[in-house]
Automatic annotation (TrEMBL):
<dbReference type="InterPro" id="IPR014016">
    <property type="entry name" value="UvrD-like_ATP-bd"/>
</dbReference>
<comment type="similarity">
    <text>Belongs to the helicase family. UvrD subfamily.</text>
</comment>
<feature type="domain" description="UvrD-like helicase C-terminal">
    <location>
        <begin position="276"/>
        <end position="401"/>
    </location>
</feature>
<keyword id="KW-0413">Isomerase</keyword>
<keyword id="KW-0378">Hydrolase</keyword>
<dbReference type="Pfam" id="PF00580">
    <property type="entry name" value="UvrD-helicase"/>
</dbReference>
<keyword id="KW-0347">Helicase</keyword>
<keyword id="KW-0238">DNA-binding</keyword>
<protein>
    <recommendedName>
        <fullName>DNA 3'-5' helicase</fullName>
        <ecNumber>5.6.2.4</ecNumber>
    </recommendedName>
</protein>
<dbReference type="GO" id="GO:0043138">
    <property type="term" value="F:3'-5' DNA helicase activity"/>
</dbReference>
<dbReference type="GO" id="GO:0016887">
    <property type="term" value="F:ATP hydrolysis activity"/>
</dbReference>
<dbReference type="InterPro" id="IPR027417">
    <property type="entry name" value="P-loop_NTPase"/>
</dbReference>
<dbReference type="InterPro" id="IPR013986">
    <property type="entry name" value="DExx_box_DNA_helicase_dom_sf"/>
</dbReference>
<dbReference type="InterPro" id="IPR000212">
    <property type="entry name" value="DNA_helicase_UvrD/REP"/>
</dbReference>
<dbReference type="InterPro" id="IPR014017">
    <property type="entry name" value="DNA_helicase_UvrD-like_C"/>
</dbReference>
<dbReference type="Pfam" id="PF13361">
    <property type="entry name" value="UvrD_C"/>
</dbReference>
<dbReference type="GO" id="GO:0003677">
    <property type="term" value="F:DNA binding"/>
</dbReference>
Length: 401
């Protein structure tokens, strides 16, 4: 159980108006948000139906809902959701167009078919990922295709052509992608005063988690519903903003008190999770960033902890050394469930997975492991093989081609 402190208690009891909560890792942020919700209901007699809790991922929303039930009993009607699921509900209720959501597979297949015979694109998978990301950034910054310069290694004319074809495809199919959901919701809030007033009346108390990863489109939606004088609490850590490549803008969090000059700012700077040396080294590193909220980390636990910096000559030696170290730790009695490997991008998990499998070591991975059998080239070869041998019973080949 995390020990209560003054910053947490102040955050819990600051209900009216705007609040920005700057919470370091291990500060008890989630517990504080849930206790704040319960305080609103039990001490301020606020209707649970008027409380909206927006999280970054569906998993986080589900977990917060479950934790609330474990801490305080059954959820009495508080809305826990992501910004996308919230906006999808808005579009379903207020949009005149009834659109279905385009799946990620259908989106990928569309672009794959568009560039299939373009010999100038060597790595088509990487190109498709870049195109999809660029389109997402364009939309989340609310730019037109003519205003946007793609980050991917493609000339602007090709990008604009693919973008136009993609938008036409969705229009014909009656589809919208996840970024369209936000754009449509924002358009409703700007142009449908009845919808806006209904939402403001319903959601009078809003909390937003992981605010450092908000983009301009999401900010506009949140600000529209909260209004200039609404009860809006945002929480995050500007030091942990890692999604700029997806369009997240940490300056949105940094500028919150400029947008709302009367907002309360509370620092939750006590780390209850990490040991002192880890906190010390992390503090030294992040202070090199000059554009951040001024803060000092405080360690609660007494033990020192150990931090090592190791450079490897290549990825193979890195994987071999780490797996051998884990083997020795387990042989000495360490619980495998207490050991974790963090990596920057998903594909870096594969060398570790292959090594664990070869050594018959059990492991689990939170993301789907990438496989050569998922690659578009393998899928194409398989489709040709099945139609050539008369095994294309599901008509997959003709769906593809």
């Amino acid at each position: 159980m995390i020990k209560k402190n003054n910053a947490q208690e102040k955050a819990i009891q600051t209900i009216s108006g705007q609040l920005i909560l700057v919470a370091c890792p291990g500060a008890g942020k989630t517990t504080t948000l849930l206790r704040r919700i319960n305080y609103m209901i039990t001490k301020r007699n606020i209707n649970p139906l008027n409380i909206l809790m927006i999280t970054f991922t569906k998993a986080a929303a589900d977990e917060m809902n479950k934790r609330y039930a474990r801490m305080f009993g059954k959820n009495p009607g508080v809305t826990f959701c992501t910004i996308h699921s919230f906006c999808l509900a808005i579009t379903k209720k207020f949009s005149l167009k009834k659109l279905s959501v385009l799946s990620e597979l259908e989106k990928y297949t569309f672009f794959r078919d568009k560039i299939r015979y373009n010999a100038s694109i060597a790595d088509k998978d990487a190109f498709i990922s870049d195109i999809i990301l660029d389109i997402s950034i364009l939309k989340n910054n609310m730019l037109s295709v003519s205003e946007y310069s793609p980050n991917c290694t493609v000339n602007k004319d090709l990008f604009q052509g693919l973008y136009t074809d993609y938008e036409d495809y969705k229009e014909k199919k009656g589809k919208m992608d996840y970024d369209d959901i936000l754009l449509i919701a924002r358009d409703i809030l700007l142009n449908n005063n009845i919808a806006l007033q209904w939402l403001r009346e319903r959601y009078q108390y809003i909390q937003v988690d992981e605010y450092q990863d908000t983009n301009y489109l999401q900010r506009d939606i949140i600000y529209q519903i909260a209004g200039k004088t609404g009860n809006l609490a945002v929480v995050g850590d500007d030091d942990q903003s890692i999604y700029a490549f997806r369009g997240a803008r940490p300056e949105i969090m940094l500028n919150f008190t400029k947008d709302f000059p009367n907002a309360a700012l509370i620092n939750m700077s006590t780390n209850y999770r990490s040991l002192k040396n880890i906190i010390h080294d992390a503090d030294l590193l992040i202070k090199q960033n000059q554009v951040r909220f001024a803060k000092d980390f405080i360690g609660f636990r007494e033990a020192d902890g150990c931090v090592k910096y190791i450079n490897y000559k290549d990825n193979t030696s890195q994987v071999d050394t780490i797996v051998k170290k884990i083997q020795k730790m387990i042989e000495k009695g360490e619980d495998p469930n207490d050991i974790a490997i963090l990596y920057r991008i998903n594909k870096e998990s594969m060398p570790f997975a292959e090594k664990f499998i070869a050594k018959k070591m059990q492991f689990q991975c939170n993301e789907k492991l990438m496989s050569k059998y998922d690659h578009w080239m393998f899928q194409d070869i398989l489709a040709y093989h099945e139609v050539a041998t008369g095994n294309d019973v599901d008509g997959v080949f003709f769906e593809k081609y």
